[in-house]
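[09:14] KT: can someone run the structure on this one? pasting the chain below
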Amino acid sequence: MRRSALCLALLAAAGGWLAGCSYTFVQPLSPTHHPGDRADCTTDLTAPVVDSSVTLIYAASSAYTATRDNQAYEGLLVAAGLVNTAVWLSSAIYGYVEIGQCRAARADAAAVPFWQQRSPGASSSLRP
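[09:31] RB: done, structure tokens below
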């Protein structure tokens, strides 16, 4: 029984490292993006909102587990929950930051007429 609890805790911690909707689904602004260029990136907040929700669930679960008495591997379970909380929180922060930059870039591009905008990845020699 104790060995299965340990394996479950380690599996949960490993699953947290592989998770994060924003890391997976948010397309960041291109590093070659210039102000006024068309921005092909993610503006939808769904992924970081899901990350934030999962972060709260892991944090609450860790807090609940820490308050329970006589639980096998309590410290390990709390540590695994906190690791998962940190991973999902970092993914949420990444998503909010990247989406904010994308929205700002799209707002800048909206002020430039479409015929003067470059497509992402176009050569800078084509710029008027």
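[09:33] KT: thanks! Confidence is low (pLDDT under 50) at residues 124-128.
[09:34] RB: yep, looked fine to me
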